[in-house]
Amino acid sequence: MNAPPPHATIKAVVPAERRSKLTTLRYVLRNPLEGWPEEVYSAPMVRTRTMGHPTLFVMDPDLIREVMVEKADAFHKDPATKRALGPALGRGILTADGAHWRWQRRLASPVFRHENVQTFLPAIVAAAGRTHDEWADAEGRQIDVLHAMMRTTFDIIIQTMLAGAPDMDVDRVAESITAYLRTSGWAVAMALLRAPSWMPYPGRRRARRSGSYLRGALQQAITARRDSGASGSDLTGLLLAASDPETGQRMEDGDIVDNLLTFIAAGHETTSLTLSWSFYLLSRHPEVEAKVLAEIAAVAPQGVGPEHIERLVYTRQVVQEAMRLYPPASVLMRLAVADLTIGAEVVPAGTTVILPVFAIHHHEALWTDPYDFDPDRFGPEAVKARHRYAYIPFGAGPRICIGMGFALLEATAILATLIARYRLTPVRDTPPRPLLHVTLRPDGGMPMRIARRAARTR
Ligand code: HEM
């Protein structure tokens, strides 16, 4: 058995019921993960209050199904998330509710069908190849793997969703997204305090500037695309051509900007985090890394190409296990908009329901040795034997991640392309501390040293 990593000891120092509002705020701003009640790792459900607000943590898989699938209509996305993301993402597919969400989801779905996602594979493998080539001179150098993965996945999202968007300042767009997300803790804290939306907080001006820049850059890309008269089967082409089947209404430019930004933000950061944690875990588990290398050598002896990705089954299991230990979306939140019951519990409208994905994935009733890294948990038999809702890195029910298939393919392709050629070693002795700021980020990035493996062609 492996020694538990430091996040095994993450737990609230001050129990929720004895916390002042100031202590709660401190947790929200520093690392909400460390503010969850300790019982979320062992109990089916925990009822508590956050800043006086009724809050229900749900961990039991049957109850998760009730919230996310059977009674999904009784919930909306929670106001704190909307407040944090709304100024940039507007009422795009991730933050909208009701009919406005349903319409957008229907429109975007064809892009993410399995057959269409397969057509993205050459672009994905080519982008992984560019990072591979950039690393060629990096022997012995230290790099931030998280930064490198952000660039790679960003490149992919722009190629596949915006058909390249040739005039876009990609670096500035990527930096603006990071700058925007950095202040999310404050935006959530302001929502919990029920502060008016004009209330200033540290970083708010910079976040707003980043949000305006992003929206302007995308508006320009849309105008250029429309002027060019090109249609195209990427997401932008689809949204430009789309109309409501019932009313015939077209999407306004503002709606298209909302959605493109949503796909860029939701689609690249999460995948790059998955990859960073995967590289880290492989570096700490040479026996697993050896199995991955053996699989790649057997499936793709001449180098990884688009045709190999679906057959890299064990490599995909590594990605899935990395998302269990470090789920990029570590918390899902909903607001009950009707009175209902969950299990035997009466849940009045206005209750915040929290699915603490990180705790569900380490729950002592659901996993054996929950802190051990073991990709065999995702072999077909093990998956069949487990409750479907014990593992929810992509959410569940009607609002499950639309990009799930895309992300799994992309992460497997990038991991296989790079690990086959390079050995990465962490610079620090201790595992990075996971920090929950909308997504689960390694505190201080993921600095690792690169070495080339014995020569083989890509
Ligand atoms: C490893 C990578 C990814 C993870 C872990 C992830 C996780 C999630 C989760 C948990 C949700 C549900 C949120 C909720 O229920 O509140 C979600 C929704 C969503 N994701 Fe992903 N995602 C990933 C990659 C992607 C990619 C590649 C795209 C697009 C290219 C994407 C686009 C979206 C969109 C648009 C939604 C909103 C869906 C809706 O509300 O109908 N995601 N994602």
Automatic annotation (TrEMBL):
Cofactor section: heme
Record key words, sorted: Heme, Iron, Metal-binding, Monooxygenase, Oxidoreductase
Gene Ontology terms, MF aspect: heme binding; iron ion binding; monooxygenase activity; oxidoreductase activity, acting on paired donors, with incorporation or reduction of molecular oxygen
Entry superkingdom: Bacteria
Record: residues binding heme: 401
Keyword Metal-binding: yes
Pfam families: p450 (PF00067)
Assigned protein family: Belongs to the cytochrome P450 family.
This protein's name: Cytochrome P450
Species this protein is from: Chelatococcus reniformis
